[in-house]
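Ticket #4471: complex job returned nothing on first submit. Input attached below:
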Amino acid sequence: MKLKKLSKCLVFLALLSLAGCADEATCIPENTDLLQLSFIDENGKASAITVVSLEVEGGNDYFPIIQDSTFSTLSVPLNPLDSVVQLNFVQESEINSITLNYRATPRLSDPKCGLETFFNEIETESTNFIDVEIVNPVLNKDITTNVKITH
Amino acid sequence: MLKSRISLLLILLFPLTFAAQGQVQVNQSAYAYALDSTMNKWTPTGIRVGMDIAGPIYSLLEPSVSRYEITTDIDLHKFFGVIEIGHGSYKTGIDSANYTSNGFFYRVGMDANFIAKDPNLNVFFFGLRYASSLFNENMSGNLPSSGWGTQTISLEQNSSRASWAEMNIGMRVRIWKSIFAGYTARLKILKHNTYSKEEFQSYYIPGFGKADRTTNWGFSYYIQYRFEWKKKPIPWRKN
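Support reply: We reran it on our side without changes. The output follows.
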């Protein structure tokens, strides 16, 4: 009798283990390569910044991503094959820059979905803004702010 | 696919029936005799060696995965010292991504036998294992990027290590003379990875399974041969 109960228990355990094999790939990435920046004033309130252009430097590449614009939040793509990015905010009277280090780790999200990059360990290397705070050092679609910049 | 796997598992679990029917008196057993106080019950009486057949069968269902392993255990009264050694690999490829992982793994540990009085030396056990894997990986393909264009990579990561612990439950049943069959169900926990240099995130760890999980289930079905040098004294209660 005991053995019968035991058998049922073991069959249940074996079926439970099969349930773990039944994952279906959704191919909806949780991660992103977009760094989320927020601009604040010295009182911690959202404060828009006006730029003539915003230039992004990473590895051997360099390109402007924004021209003649005003914004208080910004998304900047990070290079998956690099570990440093420099953002040059060209304003009418000055150029403010921020250099960030990060770690980019490729991974196979799922055999049916292909490769993606996981970005983390974001830290400030140098800046001439008033202050830069890393709010969240990981890039994820659910995260609205990675870096707060006081200007 | 799932139905066929379930059917296969039920067939594999069939030896439970043998265990239920195989009760004989200890004085009739060809393999055991009653323990008395003058004997050293901890003297090893035999070892079993065998191989897993669940891994090769699973490879037929999932050709991207292969796993082969051998096992040996030594009989120490109510306990078994266990060593399991295996090789595993994973290979996948689509247009934009290729990934391979292959390497060796081992497990060492002890099983506690709950039916130590069985004169046929059948075993129903709970066991603990320490497991470790040494493996090499390759990853190539296209990395999508929002602003930097599609980037092509070709990376390799050698001599990666992972270790984990396992809680096992299972049974072994004597099916004919010295031949045993039975399964081990595994809960793999406490995974820890070590990389010489982490070029990319591991996807598959031989012996453990998908690397992004902290726990995994596993299942092995062993056919074993018991080499015994003497009958086993078992703690038989006299009526």
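Chain B has three helices and twelve strands. Closing as resolved unless it happens again.
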